[in-house]
Specification:
Layout lengths: L6 H16 L2 H6 L13 E5 L11 E3 L1 E5 L5 E3 L14 E5 L2 E2 L4 E3 L12 E7 L2 E10 L6 E5 L57 E8 L5 E8 L2 E7 L5 E5 L50 E5 L10 E4 L7 E4 L10
Parallel strand pairs: 10-14, 11-15, 14-16, 15-17
Antiparallel strand pairs: 1-3, 2-7, 3-4, 5-8, 6-7, 8-9, 11-12, 12-13
Length: 335
Amino acid sequence: MSHFRSPVLSGIAAASILCTLTGCTSVQVKMGWKVYLDRTPVKSIEASLPQGPGIGPGQKSPLVVTFTEPDGKILTTEGKGGGKVMWKELAVTANVVSVNQKGVVSLARDPRISDGKIGHLTVTVPSHPDLRAELDIPIRYDERYTVNYSGSQGMDGSNGLDGTNGISGSPGSMDPNNPSAGGNGGDGTDGSNGGDGGNGGDAPAVQIRMALQAGGHPLVQISVAAAGKQKFYLVDPQGGTLTVSADGGRAGAGGKGGRGGRGGSGGMGTPNGSDGRSGLDGRDGMSGQPGSGGLITVTYDPQVKPYQSVLHLSSWNGPKPVYTEQPVAALWQAN
């Protein structure tokens, strides 16, 4: 049976492939998938963060810009907006936060950069100089932050190789006038032993300092130092947490021993040949030793005590964390 392919559908498929391979803007516009704003009448513009108005340190959030045409028709940006307006048609300037060429807003992980500030975006359209959208982006610190200094997991041991099966014995003769014995089957070879698992890595010691950033809405300043590096966090006790892990690395599992080869069958004859001996299974490898967890020491200001629950610690296979209450000055000054 012959197959008929519509020339229109073929053209669409070809254009789709062409755009995928080349990203050809003119083809996308011609197919109605994108629009040129310099050829589109627009009376208003609005910018928003659909995932919520705020953003936290180290977080990302997509930006959506909405345009209204004189007849009320709505256009939106590509990406999260799922629309036809290309980001390269817009100009976006940012303060405190940053925006990439795909309209994704991000905030630096270090809270000292954003503390006390508000993010701000300005969206303009070069082809429509009268259009302008302003957007304030509150900085939020009620995120669930994590930092992991745990030791590396040990490598699993390799599995042993299976032994080879023995060859079947050659057939003899069962003719009563000319009997002959069947050949014996060959022995199977032994499986090889599984490799031993590697040891887990040790976690480093971790030093944590906590100070209160007082005010109408208190926040907790936290510094975490380990392995010669220091990180800073600002946590809102109303929903925010910081989890610090310094667990010992898990031990690698031993490899499975190889299966012994099956003995070959004895050949038919008078008498039948003997079956070969099956090979022995290889020994399973030994598991490695787990790494040691790191010692976590926490020094916190007395004012932090009511908010100490924002800190969650884990040091599996290591010593218990050590807490010391003593005055801790502000780790940095808010901007």
